[in-house]
């Protein structure tokens, strides 16, 4: 048995001819069900945010979240400057916010969206869960950055079904 080390792995480089084709990989990834979140931060004048599904908890001691954002993301720039961000897990009822925060120009995303701003990063009203995090590390990886954050505040709402992204569509878990 070969041990895996912290160094580079032997073999072809990612995306090389010995790896799965990108379109086949993307198709397989559509079968990973993921909570739909809106990741938010404050800039100097207003709240900012974007839709994200590459979000996960890393550890509970200390409570830590990881968010993957494209390196070109304007939300990422604001998170880096502010040093704080929030992860808002959307409920089925607020599914329109997923498209809003993914498609509208940055300056229009929060227009008419209820939120709380007093905890360091915007928390969306009605979110299934909201976590405010302090950035502890940024890890560049391909064309993305992993934003690692220590959780400073967490709140939940139990009466809502979460919005889930699966097979290229929005759905909710079946009971």
Structure summarized in a few sentences:
The protein is mainly beta. The protein is built from three helices and twelve strands, in the order αβββββαβαββββββ. Helices cover 14% and strands 40% of the residues.
Percent strand: 35-45%
- If you compute it from the alpha carbons, what radius of gyration comes out, rounded to the nearest whole angstrom? 17 Å
Strand order of the largest sheet: 3-2-6-9-10-5-4
Low-confidence stretches: none
Helix run count: 3
In total, the number of strands is: 12
Mean pLDDT: 87
What structural class do helix, strand and pairing data support?
mainly beta
The percentage helix is: 10-25%
The main sheet comes to: 7 strands, antiparallel
Pattern of helices and strands: HEEEEEHEHEEEEEE
* Gross morphology: globular
| N-to-C CA distance | 43 Å
Helix-strand layout with pairing:
Blueprint: H1 22-29, E1 34-35, E2 37-42, E3 47-52, E4 55-60, E5 63-70, H2 74-82, E6 84-89, H3 96-103, E7 115-116, E8 123-124, E9 129-141, E10 144-156, E11 164-166, E12 169-171
Antiparallel strand pairs: 1-11, 2-3, 2-6, 4-5, 5-10, 6-9, 7-8, 9-10, 11-12
Properties at a glance:
7-stranded antiparallel β-sheet, 12 strands, 3 helices, 175 residues, mainly beta, 3-stranded antiparallel β-sheet
């Amino acid at each position: 048995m070969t041990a895996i080390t912290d160094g580079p792995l032997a073999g072809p480089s990612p995306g090389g001819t010995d790896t799965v084709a990108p379109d086949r990989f993307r198709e397989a990834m559509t079968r990973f069900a993921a909570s739909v979140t809106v990741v938010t931060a404050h800039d100097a004048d207003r709240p900012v945010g974007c839709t994200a599904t590459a979000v996960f908890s890393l550890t509970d001691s200390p409570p830590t979240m990881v968010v993957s954002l494209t390196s070109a993301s304007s939300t990422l720039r604001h998170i880096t400057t502010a040093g704080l961000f929030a992860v808002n897990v959307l409920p089925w009822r607020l599914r329109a916010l997923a498209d809003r925060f993914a498609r509208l120009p940055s300056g229009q995303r929060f227009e008419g969206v209820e939120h709380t701003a007093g905890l360091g990063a915007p928390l969306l009203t009605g979110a299934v869960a909201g976590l405010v995090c302090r950035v502890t590390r940024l890890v560049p990886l391909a064309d993305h950055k992993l934003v690692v954050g220590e959780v400073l505040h967490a709140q939940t709402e139990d009466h809502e079904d979460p919005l889930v992204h699966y097979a290229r569509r929005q759905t909710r878990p079946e009971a």
